[in-house]
Design goal:
This protein has about 110 residues and is mainly β. It contains one helix and nine strands. It has a five-stranded mixed β-sheet, covered by helices on one side. Strands 1-2 form a two-stranded antiparallel sheet. It has a two-stranded antiparallel ribbon with strand order 5-6. A hairpin with a 2-residue loop joins strand 7 and strand 8. The longest helix has 7 residues. It is elongated, with a radius of gyration of 17 Å.
Length: about 110
């Protein structure tokens, strides 16, 4: 967890917390009990939490307060969980969102033809 702030310039040295381990896309990471899944992923250098379902463009944390749905992931088999409001806990299994097949065509391509 090299990207975590441990000594804040205003708050000083932050108190230590209990560590938990979790799985993200088949790799084990550590977080702190009680923090959001998004915070734990960011602290571990994970910026892309899913990709856009149709275009495959990377998506990550945007609002970080549960409004925008950009940080949706699969948590223990539940699709569409928002990482920013999901507490990290020991042993959870998280999978990022992947591009999905779609039959919707972009009407802007080929000038609408």
């Amino acid at each position: 967890m090299t990207e975590r702030i441990m000594n804040h310039p205003v708050l000083g040295v932050l108190p230590s917390k209990d560590k938990v381990s979790f799985i993200f896309d088949d790799q084990e990471y550590e977080g702190y009990k009680g923090e959001s899944l998004a915070a734990a992923l960011l602290a571990n250098g994970i910026r892309t939490l899913r990709v856009h379902e149709e275009t495959g463009q990377p998506r990550g944390i945007y609002c970080n307060i549960g409004h925008c749905f950009e940080c949706r992931v699969n948590v223990n088999g539940l699709e569409g969980e928002r990482a920013c409001i999901t507490p990290v806990s020991d042993g959870i299994v998280v999978k990022s969102g992947k591009t999905l097949p779609t039959s919707v065509r972009d009407w802007r391509k080929n000038n609408g033809k």
